[in-house]
Amino acid sequence: MDAVRVSALRERLTGTGWLEAVGGFAGSLRRSVERRGASGLLLVGTEGYEPWHLAAHLDDEAAWSDVPRLAPTLVRHRPPAGAPAHLTHDLRRLTEAGRGATVLVVAPEAAGAQLLERVRDARRHGATVLALDGGTPDGPGDPGDLHGLAHERLTVGTAAEEPFDLAQHLVSAAAGQWAGHRSVRDRLAGLAGRLASMPAISRW
C-alpha cells in the first residue's frame, strides 16, 4: 500500500465532509461489533468482487487495536474446493446470521439479486447491515436494493477521485482507531505511517 498516496488523499479530502462520513461509518462498524451480544463480523462482496484487502486490513486492525471482533469472517459466493476452512463460508452463512451479527457488504458494482436476498434474510433475523458501495443502482427485480437494506451506507461514487481500495483502507484504519471523543482528523492522523509498517499478511 502506498502510504504517501493515502496521506495525500486524506489531506485532499479535509474540509470536504468525506472524512467525517468515513469516521461516522467506521464508528458505526466499531460500535456494532463491540455492542453487548455481538456475535461477529461477516464481510461479503459481490459475485465479481471479493474484498480481500479489506478483510486483511480489518484482521490487522483487530490485532493492532485489541478489538478481536473487528476480525471478519469472509463470506464468498463460490468458495473453491480445497480452500482453507476459514475461506469456505458461502452465502448460506448470511442466511444463518442472526441478532448480534454485523454484515458488512462491499459492493463497488451492483450487488445482484442473490446477494441482496441473503442480506435481506440476515437483516430479517436481526443482523446489523452496513454497506460500502460504489453507488451503482441494482437491477430491476432485485429484492430490495442495498440502500434500502443497509442500516448505514457509505458511498464512494464512480466519479470520485478517491479510488475504492483507498476508501476501504480509510474505513478499516478509522474503525481500528475509533473513539467517540476523538476528532476524525485525530482518528486518521496515524494512518499513513501504520499502513507503511503493516506486517505481511498470510491468513488471506
The assigned structural class equals: alpha/beta
Q: Enumerate the spans where pLDDT stays under 50 for 5 or more consecutive residues.
A: 198-202
What's the CATH topology label?
A: Rossmann fold
Q: Strand content of the residues, in percent?
A: 5-15%
Describe this structure in words.
The protein has 204 residues and is of the alpha/beta class. It has a single domain, classed as Rossmann fold (3-Layer(aba) Sandwich), CATH 3.40.50.10490. It is built from nine helices and five strands; from the N terminus they run H-H-E-H-E-H-E-H-E-H-E-H-H-H. The chain has helices spanning 3-13, 18-34, 52-64, 92-96, 113-124, 146-149, 164-177, 184-188, 191-196; strands spanning 40-44, 72-75, 101-107, 128-133, 152-155. Strands 2-1-3-4-5 form a five-stranded parallel β-sheet, with helices on both faces. The longest helix has 17 residues, at 18-34. It starts with a helix and ends in an 8-residue tail after the last helix.
